[in-house]
User: Fold this.
Amino acid sequence: MSTDPGPPRDEGVAAEGDADVLELPAASRTTAIALDELELVYAFIYARVGNRPDAEDLTQQVAMKAIPRLRQGAPASAIRGYLFATARSVLGAFWSTRLGLSEAELHEDLAMAIPAGPPSEEPAERARRILEGLSDNYRRVLELRFLHGYSLKEVAKEMRSTVGAVKVMQLRALRAAAKVRLDG
Amino acid sequence: MGENPENRVDRIVNDLLRGRRLRLRGGDAEEKEAITAAARLVAAGQGAQRMHPAFRKRLAAALESAPKGGWLTRRGAMVAGLGIAAGAVVGGLAGRALEPVRAPEALGPRKINPIPGRWVDVGALADFSEGQGKRVSAGGVGAYLFRTGSTVTAVSSICSHLPCELQWNGGNGVLDCPCHPASFRPDGAPTNQSYSLPHLDLVSVRVTDAGRVEVLGT
Assistant:
């Protein structure tokens, strides 16, 4: 689940010029390349925590944990894999701490359903896939609330319901949405 | 205490929709599936996310200012393609540069000694309330001042981890960092043991015979 992935394995010492080995960057470009890799990690984390402050903290933690442990000779594919494995570990610890649960108590698909690399589909497509798996009322309440930014009161007015009923519906819709697999 | 699950989850949804970090309380774990679904849905609804330029800049600065004494050889950095730049640029341990933790022996407070510095009047002693932090500027030095009787102490207004302006939280009597979950006591010590951070830098402050408070600034 979210155990420390350990350093990336050397898959043989890749020769310079190997297709999966990143080229030596010019000195002035090295930081930019690091940041580009971390951009992918950031997007990956943001998609799971839904807010910038936490995503920034966690991305920084990934950099802090992973970069010093990168081994000489590790191929580029292993580096990216290691960054994402570290991101999974960091996310597991994050949810464990925030929810007050041991990482063993975190359900497999709660925070850990994580692909080997960055997700290929756009966030909007992920949202569409979540919503289309829900009943009409559940889909509507989540669309209004999360995609259109309606307040509970506005949702209640739109759906000709009460704030209390909408609040309960929102909870049930989110529980149902949690069962929709986004990754893989 | 006795908060309904729908209220509990809606509180978290509201925070997320306002761009706030996840602030979970005891009992929220019962709704962990709904909470994580809300986080994912908020993210999905916001489209593809990239690092904020300010955050990217901070990471870049950390990478570029990494200390000497690298782990990776030039070839290691080259193969990793991650800009660890052993020798070439930073020649060092980039991860260490990103770490929020200084070496244990360096965790004690440091004092800001601007060169050239000058004493800047920031108000009368009577302007400072007991037990309340007050933000002042002394030229280029920003500080929070705390009065205890006739003495005043001061710490930097900049977080020791991320370069963000701290905010005085009078309710808890701490300085909160708006950029990450960190807070500091008025003496500058971090409050959270599990998120180890360096002590805030100290700022020199004095009270004159005339009852004026002066900060060593620029």
About this structure: Chain B touches chain A through 74 residues (CB under 8 Å). The two ends of chain B are 50 Å apart (CA to CA).
